[in-house]
Design brief:
alpha/beta; Rossmann fold; Dihydrodipicolinate Reductase, domain 2; 6-stranded mixed sheet; binds NADP nicotinamide-adenine-dinucleotide phosphate; EC 1.1.1.3
Length: 342
Amino acid sequence: MKENTVSIGLLGCGNVGQGVVKGILLHSNKILRKLGITLVVSKALVQDISKERAIEGVILTQKPQDILDDPEIEVVVEVMGGEHPTYSYIKEALDKGKHVVTANKLLLALHGAELQEIAQRKGICLLYEGSVLGGIPILRTIQYGLAGDQVKKICGILNGTTNYILTQMVESEKGYEEALQEAQEAGYAESDPTMDVTGLDAACKLVILCRECFDLDIPLEEVEIKGIQGLTPEEVAEQKRQGRVPKLVAEASIIDQSSSGLEKSREGIIAKVGVQWLSREAILSHVSGVDNGLSLETQLVGDLFWKGPGAGGLATGGAVLSDIVEIAKKVVVERSIGNAAR
Ligand SMILES: NC(=O)c1ccc[n+]([C@@H]2O[C@H](COP(=O)([O-])OP(=O)(O)OC[C@H]3O[C@@H](n4cnc5c(N)ncnc54)[C@H](OP(=O)(O)O)[C@@H]3O)[C@@H](O)[C@H]2O)c1
């Protein structure tokens, strides 16, 4: 393999996986010009090889070992979803010294700390920009941009499906079931929308944000979670008359603040997901449809806010690609140092 070529194996090639492949095709010239790196997706694990996919040049396989045992593949990109068998595949990839990129918030909320520990021990990367806020580059901003600051409060709309349903309930005065059905028909909600509507998806993302912002692992079961299922059109109409809109808000803050700084402990963090009735003045009330929004209150900078597409194959694929590029830079530098030492 050429010194500047980095071979990637995908575990999964659905919406996000195909978004990654398309992103590489679209931007390969720019990546080569700016970074001198060529990215090649060599193989992808799928369930059904006969399914039509809008990608070319990638070998499809149903055998995970074709990727996990391939010595040329240095970066494994997990975009399969779910906890099992994904957990064992990622663990095996890390154990074999392969860098891993994932967009799987459920897996990260449940096993992120353990997997990160393995990656650190092995001196390799486990990156997951696509797991929170889809296309909005938030994790790297927290890790690098706010490295010298301390986030005190996280407050956001982290799930596009429920935000779409709630927006429809307010703007088109639809009932919950009707708005959910419309979200499913428009492709914004899965056929089983449980993770979204119960608030579990937003809670997983909140756990990841807490890890990044507070450097603390909040177990998923310690997040107070309430979904949007119980909301009635009457309640929405009455609140709307009073100038308020419902939003599924995920928030966490350090309640335990000493004068010398911010003391962080698990007991000192309150993390919860639930419907809040926001006035039109609240910044999150203007995050509509499938968009996500996040505001962070930090010790030095103060208030920050991001809004944008929180999901979608191309947007999330772009976030995954940013992780791949970061790893590829490291791989190529390490390779050239290794070659020079020989
Ligand atoms: N979609 C989004 O907008 C979005 C946004 C942020 C994060 N994510 C996360 O990204 C991940 C992927 O989401 P997605 O929307 O791309 O899912 P998807 O469209 O359902 O794609 C899943 C892919 O994984 C393959 N797969 C699933 N189980 C498998 C198994 N046991 N063995 C082999 N292959 C298997 C499927 O194969 P077949 O194609 O053959 O069925 C498919 O290619 C999830 O963790 C999700 O939470 C998604």
